[in-house]
Amino acid sequence: MVVQGYGRGGGSLAAAAALVGVIVTTGGCSAPEDAEPGGDPTRTVRDAAAVLTRAGSSKASTSMEMAAGGTRVTIRGEGGYDFRRRTGHLRVVLPPDAAGTSEHRPITELLAPGALYMKNRGAGVPDDKWVRVDTTTLDDGNLVTGGATDPAAAAELLRGAQQVTYVGEVDLAGAKVSHYRGVADIAVAARAASPQVRGALAAAAKGFTKDTVPFDAYLDREGRLRKVRHQFSFTNQGRTVAVASTTLLYAFGTPVDVRLPSRKDIYAGKIKV
Length: 273
Prior knowledge:
This protein is an alpha+beta fold and 273 residues long. The protein has one domain: outer membrane lipoprotein receptor (LolB), chain A (Clam). The protein has helices at 13-17, 41-46, 48-55, 151-156, 186-192, 195-207, and strands at 57-68, 71-82, 87-93, 107-112, 115-119, 130-134, 161-172, 175-185, 212-219, 225-236, 239-250. It has an eleven-stranded antiparallel sheet with strand order 6-5-4-3-2-1-11-10-9-8-7. A hairpin with a 5-residue loop joins strand 9 (212-219) and strand 10. The radius of gyration is 18 Å and the shape is globular.
């Protein structure tokens, strides 16, 4: 299956977003006396992915906002992720009327090293079949295509963190977290990433219009990434398309059971876009 991504010279926004059956036709900072946590902020942020691996697993919520011209849509997801096995699951909810209908069934996504599996994909795919996408062949490495950034990729992208500054301490869902801001160099992150994520990030390093991605990262006192927001951009027929992807991680230690579909359950036909 040939997938049009979000990179240099990529297809229209509608074609890119069609992978998930979408789209486009239509706590404040703490007081000044809060001191910056000890240590180098750049190193602290770059280490976040390794800390998550030690933490094991968590629940996850995702939000992806896409804007082009006067059109803006938001795709949301809920699920869980195992950072040791690099597998996860998300229930992705499409925005109403994004594809010209009033209701859309949620898409089930399974995340695995180098692969994205989707059910209820639509576009001619039978209801009982899964679509499998090789994320190492996508122009964006599935940082954007699936409508939700793989939580492991979101964290591993921070391995390329640069120009990091400490913003302050904020309250996030009742927990005190440290807010950091900077940019992530995708190519640097790909070289430093774990083997399971390296291929997808290497593809993204070649595909995006800009090599660096602005981010806001929020780490708890154990160094675990609790929230990260990346701001991606790409050029589409002379227009700049902005994509803000937010990943929330919570309930660490929650078991995450992911069973990948068998070969017979994977759709092998042509995908309509």
